[in-house]
Amino acid sequence: RMSREQKAVECARKAFLTGRSKPLEHRIRQLKNLQRFLLEREKEIAEAIKKDLNKSEAGTQLYETLGLEGEIVLAVKKLAEWVAPRPVEKNLLTISDTVYIQPEPLGVVLIIGAWNYPWAVTIQPLIGAIAAGNAAVVKPSEVCVHTAKVMEDLLPAYIDKELYPVVTGGVSETQELLRQRFDHVFYTGNSMVGKLVMEAAAKHLTPITLELGGKSPCYIDKNCDIPIACRRVTWGKYSNCGQTCIAPDYILCEPSIQDRVLEEIKKSIKAFYTEDPKTCPDYGRIINQRHFKRIMAMTEDSTIAIGGDSDESTCYIAPTVLKDVQVNSKVMQEEIFGPLLPILTVSGVDEAINFINKGEKPLALYIFSPDDKVIKKVIAETSSGGVLANDCLVHYSVSALPFGGVGNSGMGSYHGKFSFDNLSHLRGCLIKQLKMEGVNDMRYPPHTAKKLFWARFFILKNPDLGWLGRMTLLAIIAVVAAVVLQVRGKEETFLISTVRKRLQWRCILFEVEL
Ligand SMILES: NC(=O)c1ccc[n+]([C@@H]2O[C@H](COP(=O)([O-])OP(=O)(O)OC[C@H]3O[C@@H](n4cnc5c(N)ncnc54)[C@H](O)[C@@H]3O)[C@@H](O)[C@H]2O)c1
Ligand SMILES: CCCCCCCC=O
């Protein structure tokens, strides 16, 4: 008997094979329906997230659905351009051919979402999958019970439910899905499960995107505007109660500014979330008691400088800052994913860079400094999925930037056109004419030194000649082809040696130019 998951995959595959996901009009219609869903079901979406994560209605729009709408609007506007053949640079050998990249759908994509921004991280890959002409099986995180239910119940009324089925469930359902054959798996979540996803996908040689997390460092330079830096860091850290993949995980700064940093963060916490964040509608809750316990245990061996209050029954943890934190303390052993902000002191930017480079490559890296040299130095001497200077989180909302990790923080990237390209096969196409056979002589056996000379010339020279130059070259190639055809099998004639000498001269000239 087929499982529910198998049936969903088979249904999506069958629908994909009808070819209806491919026409541009279909993709645009589905994307617009998705946008209509976000607008018409705003209330249900907000209510579910309020129950799951205590996010406010405005917060849900700001951090989740607004970005999705922006991505849909962009895809609808640009899709004709994205799907079109992309002409590429030609070399001398392909100068008279049609050479281009044709993006084509991959097939059926599996999207496995996480709970922390359940709409943003589940629907954003779906936008890419639809835009690229794929079918997609959507598996929201079971941890956000109410949101998963809204997705399962309401989404099929708006978008093609055979092409884009929603399958709910937890670990065993996801594992059953992963046993099926897909054309791409797009997973968002923690690195440990990321490895399991990769292992499962390897069985079918299915390509994957892994949107993972990790400890994203934040270096604050002593010369920067500390009140502004701290306000931005406070926002980046405590939004969604620190349960953000790109939240600044910890601060690195010189000991001389630690107290000022603490003072300014304290002021910002009060300004954003009042004296009593517990009663503030804009301050979230920890997703469940398992995570509550995990986060609270991290405070055990560090000094709490700000906050520290908690309430297990409501999964509340106050915005908390830990000072003089040691490298081997509990809070520095794994991604915090909660409202704790450790401060580690370093002697300066060099020590900060060394520290960052000793850890896994993070998803985001933050630098606060008024000095462009300091910013460029950190960028040049470290690696991370993305890097942002003098702010937090906002690089996520720039569709023109690829969003994704590197190393332990993930592989592959998306947003905007990157989503489209990531979920497309970029097919290399070359269309030749059955003419000009003489030009090919140099690659056919018997191989000779003379043929090699021509092969070197045609393959290694790739000058940017402009239109006139290309036409001249085309004419030369046509002459060479005609001559080669004429003299093939005969001794080298005076004519060919003259052409050859001329080309040799051009060759030298190109070398001088290049
Ligand atoms: N890079 C990003 O865009 C991004 C976005 C959000 C979260 N994250 C990262 O995700 C992590 C938090 O998410 P999470 O992992 O707690 O989310 P989660 O518990 O919701 O798990 C993610 C998905 O994996 C599935 N899953 C869980 N265990 C599984 C197993 N054993 N086998 C197969 N599937 C399984 C779940 O059903 C869920 O759909 C953090 O590390 C965070 O940084 C990354
Ligand atoms: C503008 C900030 C949005 C942050 C969304 C992050 C998604 C990953 O956790």
UniProtKB/TrEMBL annotation:
<keyword id="KW-0276">Fatty acid metabolism</keyword>
<dbReference type="GO" id="GO:0006081">
    <property type="term" value="P:aldehyde metabolic process"/>
</dbReference>
<keyword id="KW-0812">Transmembrane</keyword>
<keyword id="KW-0256">Endoplasmic reticulum</keyword>
<dbReference type="InterPro" id="IPR029510">
    <property type="entry name" value="Ald_DH_CS_GLU"/>
</dbReference>
<dbReference type="GO" id="GO:0006631">
    <property type="term" value="P:fatty acid metabolic process"/>
</dbReference>
<keyword id="KW-0597">Phosphoprotein</keyword>
<dbReference type="GO" id="GO:0004028">
    <property type="term" value="F:3-chloroallyl aldehyde dehydrogenase activity"/>
</dbReference>
<feature type="domain" description="Aldehyde dehydrogenase">
    <location>
        <begin position="1"/>
        <end position="424"/>
    </location>
</feature>
<feature type="active site">
    <location>
        <position position="211"/>
    </location>
</feature>
<dbReference type="InterPro" id="IPR016160">
    <property type="entry name" value="Ald_DH_CS_CYS"/>
</dbReference>
<keyword id="KW-0732">Signal</keyword>
<dbReference type="InterPro" id="IPR016161">
    <property type="entry name" value="Ald_DH/histidinol_DH"/>
</dbReference>
<keyword id="KW-0472">Membrane</keyword>
<keyword id="KW-0443">Lipid metabolism</keyword>
<dbReference type="InterPro" id="IPR016163">
    <property type="entry name" value="Ald_DH_C"/>
</dbReference>
<feature type="transmembrane region" description="Helical">
    <location>
        <begin position="467"/>
        <end position="487"/>
    </location>
</feature>
<dbReference type="InterPro" id="IPR016162">
    <property type="entry name" value="Ald_DH_N"/>
</dbReference>
<dbReference type="InterPro" id="IPR012394">
    <property type="entry name" value="Aldehyde_DH_NAD(P)"/>
</dbReference>
<dbReference type="InterPro" id="IPR015590">
    <property type="entry name" value="Aldehyde_DH_dom"/>
</dbReference>
<keyword id="KW-0560">Oxidoreductase</keyword>
<keyword id="KW-0492">Microsome</keyword>
<protein>
    <recommendedName>
        <fullName>Aldehyde dehydrogenase</fullName>
    </recommendedName>
</protein>
<dbReference type="GO" id="GO:0120553">
    <property type="term" value="F:farnesal dehydrogenase (NAD+) activity"/>
</dbReference>
<comment type="subunit">
    <text>Homodimer.</text>
</comment>
<dbReference type="Pfam" id="PF00171">
    <property type="entry name" value="Aldedh"/>
</dbReference>
<keyword id="KW-1133">Transmembrane helix</keyword>
<feature type="active site">
    <location>
        <position position="245"/>
    </location>
</feature>
<dbReference type="GO" id="GO:0005789">
    <property type="term" value="C:endoplasmic reticulum membrane"/>
</dbReference>
<keyword id="KW-0520">NAD</keyword>
<comment type="similarity">
    <text>Belongs to the aldehyde dehydrogenase family.</text>
</comment>
